Amino acid sequence: MNLERVPNEEKLTLCRKYYLGGFAFLPFLWLVNVVWFFKEAFMKPVYTEQLQIKTYVKRSALGLLFWVTVLTTWITIFQRFRAEWGEVGDYLSFTIPLGIP
Amino acid sequence: MDLLSSKWLVNLLVCWFFIGVGCNSVEKKIYVHLNYTIPCVRLLNATHQIGCQSHLSGNVGVLHVLESEENLDWVLRSGLNPPYLVILESPLFTRSIMMKLKNGSSRVAGVAVVAANANPPDGFSPHTNCPNENTGVYTESYDPAMSHCNVTVWNPLGNGLSYEEFDFPIFSMKDDNDTLVIRQCYMDHNRAVNGSTPQYPLCAMQLFSHMSAVTNTATCMRRNDINFSISPEMVCDPLGDYNVWASTKPLNNTAKGHKDGERVVVAAARLDSRSFFFDVAPGAQSGVSGFVALLAAAHALRNATQEAPPPRNILYAFFQGETFDYIGSSRMVYDMQNNQFAVDLDNIHSVLEVGQVGLRAESKLWLHSDPVSRKNSSVDEEVKKLIQNLQSAATDLNVSAEVPNVSQPLPPCSFQRFLRARPIPGVVIEDHQSAFTNRFYESMYDNAEHLNISYPSNLTLEEQLEFVTDTAMALTEVATMVARTLYAQAGGAESQRNNINADRQIVTRMLYGFLVRSNNSWFQQLIPSDLMSHLTDTPTNFYVGVAPQTSKPTYLVQYLLANLTGSTVNITQENCQNQRESEEDKENKHMYFYVWAQGAALPNSTEREGFCTRSTARLVKAMSPAFDLREYTSKDYSTWTESRWKSIKGRIFLVASHELEMVTLGVGVGVLLTSLLLTYFMSSKADILFSSGREPANATY
Q: What's the short name of a Pfam family annotated to this entry (chain A) (predicted)?
């Protein structure tokens, strides 16, 4: 969908949907929201709905940052300690690499 | 940057042209695949992993043919093109060299051992010097003074290589065309001539033996059970097979557990062996000598036990997987304790085990017994009787059977697992007084040559099968002695005893069949036709293998035992294969096992005249109870597993220098980027570049 051709009200609804959808443990929606609406929120000349869009984009970005931190931390810990955890590590794994601990 | 690299470029171009069609032949031009490669594979137990492992994409190293131990310096320090793939002649395959390579493994990509055509003169055993140290009867609690081979080190030549872990692949190669190609390739490209460094391209080898399992049995068995993914992948399998057993009087095999009034004399031998490499385990002295003697004894007893049945029963047991912490015997004892076997431990009168008996110095045999259980006077009395029976049988023959020092414990043997359960009288017959006479225990050299079995060169295959060697004669004597002793042990009449004689022709054929070629006319007669594919022209491999499968020697021993102890019955093929004597017969299958053997080939024809043999030879599972109990860290039972793998192969090829590889890659990337830029440029300036041609067309509309 080309945002250029969408009326401003619809942009706001779309942005809100993506923002709210992100709460269902879907950080990728927030990522899309940030990338997609960044220009709308910060670069375009001012229009009525822009303020609201700005808030959603900022919050999405914040949420995204939170997710990124949490996931990076967890993945680092998991990859570093999976072998040491032994049994627990195996049960937490979806695919277990062959031939290495 | 010479002929080779330009050849490479041409190959690459051709490949790009005929992508999908032509690439195969290009691959053939680059690589020479090795035909005969035997890997060393990874095995795991409760605490350790042993064996070898390559990377998932194989280990590549520049070939280096090691000439002496001093030459190692080139591989481990001074050589300029590490990592190296070391080619060893088998005399250099020693612990000291292998451990140096193991410790310098960042410069070692792998090792290929060229198998020798003759056995080394000094002896070689990659096994430990105290086999099955922790799972025999001599634990700290049984007798601290005898544990861990404190009294006798049974296998003093054992260097423990088979129980080391290497993080590079080790392959064994036959000395044939492959090794010729490798040597030639090394001579042409890699040899430093008078101090100069060898120039690229260099000859390299790639070995694949990536193992799926890792760490220990508990880990790999757990990973076998995790099936989150769409295609769950097994990583290891327990070692195991089937024990073979038979009895002189049929036992109801469907009714398990204690049989009232039944007394059995167990005659045991072990079936399996191993070596450093995966599927070469000839086990001539360590396994074959013992079980062939017992099979011949069983045959010798057939007539006597049918005509004048002794009061007690004789149970022949051939145990599988004994090399790996007594898998077979521990399982049978476990089954006896849990009423899962045709008899139980209370039914056992005594045990006579035939160990390594192929190499008798001064034709002496040694009768080993357990000093700890003999402290019990009733056991001691029975053991004394058994020894006396053995000695009186020996004096009639050309054998001298002697008793070693009383305070010496038993050598590694299946009987130890019976003693672990309870004190049972028993004797183990061996050809050594203390340490093994076997200089090649559990190695690839424990072969026919080691037992001095050789044939005059002018014999045909049929004549070789019937050619009686000195070893066969000696083993026949042992078999006769065992048979007479068993008959006496079972309470048979003394008058019958001297009529019991092992057939030396049978011993001869068995030795030939197991140690030289199983694909011989005699074995062919005795097996069912669907097992013909199991017969090969090479020595039998006695490695136990993984549990759900039945290995070749197990089948062979079962059918041999069936034919040697059973009798031919006149029933139809269909009834025979359905384990019954007539359509209405539902009883005999509990007592007997029927085999439809394919029989001898009729003269001038490929057809065979089959016959039905009725015997008591049966298979019973030989898988460690640890896997049924799911106790993967068990200290009582074997926990050995074998890793799975996807491909095992080796190939040689020429490698270009690192710089040339980088230049090629750089040029490729450069061409790609240029073409991208060019395309971008052309598309952005398309209106200018292609304007002249289009204008008249625009004008028309």
A: PEN-2
